[in-house]
Automatic annotation (TrEMBL):
The lineage of its organism: Bacteria, Bacillati, Bacillota, Bacilli, Bacillales. This is Uncharacterized protein. It comes from the Bacteria.
């Protein structure tokens, strides 16, 4: 996976690609539509490869983004990769990547300082003025715990049918095409 590699010789991308890239990640409507396309067509395997390309674009063009844009996009790529690892039932890779991000990315979300700090556990970073800074992965910690339970159960039994997601291979080409076109129709109705 790309997150373990360094980006030393990646070419710069043209402004048109960067504009589309920013639009995808900074306009929630487009990102939501992208998620729908991936989920409806169950194309999570390809999306994992796309996440590598998204990381390349972001890292090799760092100066084209403000600090807030860079952080926001990086967090969204991380969440997209976690989503696809979950949907492809790569539980150990999910846990490994989650821990890698937790230990190497200090992005945070803010919560009111009236919130009980103990509820955040290891995700608590510090308190500043009127807010707690909580590692942004806290929002996905429930899914992390679910996946840990799936791993534990898989070590005890071979019967995992109801724990696994349905892969794209269970869809016919016609079903994939139909699902893809449904999302496109919906996007045209919303005037994207």
């Amino acid at each position: 996976m790309q997150y373990f590699q360094t980006n030393t010789s990646i070419e710069k991308f043209d402004e048109n690609i960067l504009a589309k890239f920013k639009k995808l990640f900074l306009d929630y409507r487009y990102l939501k539509l992208f998620y729908q396309m991936i989920d409806k067509t169950r194309n999570h395997e390809i999306c994992l490869l796309i996440c590598d390309n998204f990381e390349k674009i972001l890292m090799s063009n760092r100066s084209a983004f403000t600090l807030n844009e860079f952080e926001s996009i990086d967090k969204k790529i991380i969440k997209l990769r976690l989503h696809c690892l979950d949907k492809t039932d790569r539980w150990n890779k999910y846990i490994e990547y989650f821990e890698y991000v937790f230990n190497n990315k200090n992005y945070y979300s803010t919560y009111s300082n009236e919130s009980d700090v103990s509820r955040f556990g290891k995700f608590y970073i510090h308190t500043r003025k009127s807010e707690h800074h909580i590692h942004f992965l806290y929002e996905g910690s429930y899914r992390y715990e679910v996946i840990e339970r799936k791993i534990a159960r898989s070590l005890k039994t071979d019967k995992l049918g109801n724990l696994r997601h349905h892969p794209q291979s269970e869809l016919t080409d016609e079903e994939i095409n139909h699902r893809y076109n449904e999302v496109l129709k919906w996007s045209k109705i919303l005037d994207f």
